[in-house]
Amino acid sequence: MNSIIEAFAKHSRDEPERIALLFEGQTYSYGELYQRVRQFAAALQAWGLQRGERVALFLENCPEFVIGYLGTHLAGGVVVLVNTLYRQVELRHILTDSGARLALTDSGGATELSRLKIDLPQLEGLLMVGGGLESDFTSFDFEAFAASASDELPFPAGDELATIGYTSGTTGRAKGAMLLHSNLASNVATLTKSWGWTAADRLLLTLPLFHAHGLMVGLHGTFFSGASADLRHKFEAAAVLDALQNDTNITMFFGVPTMYGRLLAEAEARGISPRHLRLFVSGSAPLSPQAFYDFERVFGQRILERYGMTETIMNTTNPYDPADGERRAGTVGRPFPGQEARIVDVQTRQPLPDGETGEIEVRGPHVFKGYWQRPEATAEAFGPDGWFKTGDLGSRSPDGYYTISGRARELIISGGYNIYPREVEEVLARHPTVAEVAVVGRPDTDMGEQVVAYVVAQTDQKPTADELITYCREYLAVYKKPRQVIFVESLPRNALGKVQKHLL
Q1: Are 309 and 165 in contact (CB under 8 A)?
Q2: More confident of the two residues 150 and 461
Q3: Which of 37, 267, 405, 407 registers the highest number of CB atoms within 10 A of its CB?
Q4: Distance from chain centroid for Cα 107
C-alpha cells in the first residue's frame, strides 16, 4: 500500500460492515466512514482545492477529524496538523508558514481564527463542524459540494506530500516537517507487524489526533491493519480505567508517561488490579524506570516503550514478542525492521562504540523529506550519507537496546507535548515589567518536565509570578505557560553574552 487512505479503502471494500471507529456511543463501519471520506474529498475538489495545496485541521478528537484527514489525502491535498491548544502566536505562524487555503475546525476554533483574519490572507475558507458561527472567512458549504461525489478518486502516490507537522525547535519558530505518503505507509507497515496488530484488535485511543502519537501510530495502525479504535474526546483517568476494566473488546492502550502515572494513581486509589490487555505502549516522553516497575506491580504486565518523533514517526521499539527479548526499563529498544539507528559523536559525527553517549541518528524509508520551505534547516538536519540528526542524546547497549539520556537541544517535553523555550521567552519579554527572561525545563514527577521562567524585572516595576503566568496563558497554549516564575537580579552569561541555561 502506498498510503493510509489506500489501505482504508481496501478494508471498506473487503469488509464494509466491519467496525472502524467508535465515538461517544456512535459506531462507524469501514464502509460508512469511507463513503463520508469520499464525499469530503469530492467537496474539496469541487470547492477548488488543487493537488498539493494545504488544508489545516484545527479540531479536537472526533469522527470529523478522521473524515477530514483521510478526505484531504484522497482529494490530493496536504494536511497541516494544528494543536487545538494553540492561540494567536502559534496559529499566526503555522497558518502563514504553511499557506493553508482551508481550515477544518469547530465554532471555538473559528472564533480564534477570525481574530487573525487580517493576518491570514491565504486562508480563504473555514469548514466548521457543527456550524453555528458567522465568520469573516468564506464559508465552505459542505453539503452542497458533497452532493457532487460520484466518481472514484485516485489514491495519492507514495512520493506525494501527505502531512506537515510542526515540530518545536530551540532557535526560532516551529518548523513544518514534511511527511510523504510512503513515509507514513512504510512506518506503519513495520510497526503493525512488529506489534502483532491485526483486525481483531481494538485500541482505546485518548491521545490527541493532532499529535503524531495519536494519529500516525494509533489511527494509522488501526486503519492499516483493519482494526477498530474506541476514540475518546480526551484522556480522563477514571473513564479510561473503567473502559480497560470492563470492555473486553479493548486489546490495546497507548499513552504518554503522564497518563500512565494518573492511571496508576486511580487504580491504587480503587485498590484494583485491572485486567490484562494485549499491549500497553508508552511514548512521546521518557518513561521512568520507577513508573515502568510500578505499572508492572499494579497492572501485572510490562509497558512497551518506543521512541519516535514528528520527523520520523517511530524509530525504535522494545520487543513485543518475549522470544525477541525483554521489555527493558529505561530503554526504547531496537530499531524497527528495515530502519537504522546509530550513536555518533556530537562534534565529529563519527559513530561511537556501544556504551558511549552521543547523538542518535536514524535512517530509513520512514524519515521525512525535510522542513517546509526551510532548505537550510533541512540541509543542517541531514548528514551527507542520509542520516537524520535527531538532536537526542543516548547510548546503545551491546545487545542493541537504545537508551535516551537527554537532548542536545533545549527542548522541553511536558505531558508529551514539545515546548521550545524561545517562544515562551518572546511572549514574556513583551510584558512591560520584564527586562530579561530565560526559560528552562525542570524535572516533574507528573508531567515529565515543567516550564520554569527566570525573570529579571524592570528596576521601577515588580510583577508578580501570577501576573506573568496569566499573561502567557493569553498568548500561548496552556501547557506552555510557566509553572514557576523565579525572580533573579541577573541572568548568568558567558564571555560572549550567551545565557548559560545549564547554571539555571
Answers
A1: no
A2: 461
A3: 37
A4: 23
3-state secondary structure 178-224: EEEHHHHHHHHHHHHHHCCCCCCCEEEECCCCCCHHHHHHHHHHHHH
Cα 1 from chain centroid? 23
Neighbour count for residue 319 (Cβ, 10 Å)? 17
| Amino acid (one-letter) located at 286 | P
Classify the C-alpha dihedral 467-468-471-472 as positive or negative. Answer: negative
Cβ burial, residue 84 (10 Å; 0-12/13-18/19+): buried
Q: Which amino acid belongs to residue 189?
A: A
**Nearest in space to 419 (alpha carbons), one of 161, 83, 98:** 83
Place 412 in a pLDDT band, splitting at 50, 70 and 90: confident
DSSP letters along 209-269, please? Answer: TTSHIIIIIIIHHHHHHT-EEEE-SS--HHHHHHHHHH-TT--EEEE-HHHHHHHHHHHHH
DSSP 3-state of 323: helix
Alpha helices in 271-420 (DSSP H): 289-299, 375-381
What contacts 189, CB < 8 A, 6 or more positions away? 1, 224
All three cell numbers of 80: 497541516
- The Cβ-side half-sphere exposure at 434, using a 13 Å CA radius, reads 25
**Is residue 12 within 8 Å of 31, Cβ to Cβ?**
yes
**Residue 399 vs residue 171, higher pLDDT:** 399
| Three-state DSSP state, 91 | helix
Give tens-digit pLDDT for 222-263. Answer: 999 999 999 999 999 999 999 999 999 999 999 998 899 999
Place of cell 565529529: 348
Contacts 24+ apart (CB under 8 A), 12-20: 14/226, 15/199, 15/226, 18/199, 18/226, 18/228, 19/228, 20/222, 20/223, 20/228, 20/229
Dump pLDDT digits (tens) for 49-108: 999 999 999 999 999 999 999 999 999 999 999 999 898 989 999 999 999 999 999 988
Q: What is the pTM of this model?
A: 0.87
112: exposed, middle or buried (Cβ count in 10 Å: 0-12, 13-18, 19+): middle
Pairwise CA distance, residues 89 & 32, whole Å: 38
What does DSSP assign to residue 70? H
Whether residue 204 contacts residue 198, with contact meaning beta carbons closer than 8 Å, is answered with no
Helices and strands: H and E segment counts in the chain: 15, 26
- If you count them, how many residues does the chain have? 504
Q: Are strands 434-444 and 358-363 parallel, antiparallel or unpaired?
A: unpaired
What the block records as the C-alpha cell of 435 is: 527586562
